[in-house]
Design a protein that fits this description.
The protein is an alpha+beta fold. The protein has 19 helices and 21 strands.
Amino acid sequence: MDHELETSYDDSYFLLDNNVYHQELALVSIANAISTIRGGTDYKKKANNLLDLWKKEGFKDFYISDAFINKPTTTSIGYGISNKHVTIKNEEFNLIAISVRSGEYEAEWASNVTLGSEGNALGFDNASNEVKEGIYKYLIDHKISGRTKLWLNGFSRGAITANMTSAKILDDIVRDKFVEGVKTTSNDIYAYCFEPPAGALVSDEVARDTLYSCIHNVINMNDVVPMLAPYEWGFKHYGQDYYYPDRLTDIYFDASERYKIVSNYHFTKGAHDFMEYSIDNWKFFDPGQEYGDKFNLPRETLHPSLSRFFRSFIQELAKALQDRPTYASLVQNGLVEVFKAMNGLNPEIGDKIIDLSNIVDIFSTYTYVRNLILEVLQDNATGFYNDMRFLIYQIMGYNENNKEAISELVNSNMPLLVLFVQSFKTRKDLALQLFNRDNMLGIIIAHTMELCYTFLKSADTRFYGKKAIKLNDGNYKIIKISNPSSFTLYEHHLKKDIFTYKDKTMVSDTLCAEKLANGDINIYIPNNGTYSYTGEFASMALYNTSYKGIETAINEALPPSGDIN
């Protein structure tokens, strides 16, 4: 057992079916991903923790890319490769481990927002090409031959790079373009990718093709990063997806289950650097009658969902930015310059690296934050731009020496700031939620390796047996009720009413629900429940909803009482 993360490694893991998700491989893979970011401030030592872990796991012949042990650039990608020869249960093979740097990559953030105007997301495409070629060179340089298995892992940027690298290797294998003399089939690729963004411009059918079933993506529904680049612009990641449980997707994910995760999180090394993570702490704000009535927005909520907020926000932002070519021509370069400046690569502004948590602190205590909210509500793009300009001045340390460079930086991002306001044109409620300080901190914590490890450990039967939480497919249902006067929803396994509506009041300890300005209510129910209902209403419809926010009608005219399975 690794003394920091309570994980284990065994060669026998790589005798398991690679097309099936295995908790053992998931936990040891996240440990490898986490080890890529714990190297201190000395770039030359950045890979030491990864190397130490690999040594414990019996690997040798270490290769660390130059970008891993030098100051990152806007286009670099850090990764490591090692190998071992395995003989187990009458099987013999080479095992190649590939871990992509998954944090502390500074200016590489610029590559994350570099989509380009066509094809795969340019930054992720280039990174995966570089890692793939690095793997092939490693196999040749180390004279690897015979049966060979590849184990790839990464988190966030590292995850999508590992994801697309794996897909490209699989494509090469089926086209007989893999490294000569190395006998690797699609059954020999083990890829575990945690919180991957989307970077492949392919259809849903291609992304989910059985060829890529050995690529396993583990996702927090309440994390915005896997929703980018936007699905609405055609971006995907390859392979099979598994989602942590949430109120939306698991009827049994009660208070005790959430407490288990929160408890594990705070005993995870590194988690003490963050505020308390609370799955139930997302704050909703009533947009008021003026905006609520005009756009029929939610006016009341029960257990508001961070996941649904993000899905709606990304959809609205993608519409405001219009399309990918517009983003590439008007927005992309300005964002790249921001990340360069934040990571000390703009000498005219300064070489200090700006910490994200400091930005949140500045933003949340900033004098103009109330004005920013009001300007968004009033579609005042000019006022929003001017106030954001002063905010950026403060974040970047505006002074006599750098004022011209910072002003140029702000001007290059004017299209983004103006279009950003337009993304809230109809969803004023989203603006109120986004600009809340506690909500901002929750957004950051939802995308941390420590939280990912916590969920994976909580889902591991080796630690919790039958009490382990269960991953799911990210789908759930919506009950849409028009003009209700009463409604009761009963869940058979829990043997109790889990939602009631009476005297214009929603009550539930379990479910996410919302009342719209016109009085209609939406109730979000997990697919693993068995329900009965009765009510008085004008109409009631049932929809299936995917993690990507795609709603598919199941029945648009349900009777006053019945069952839902």
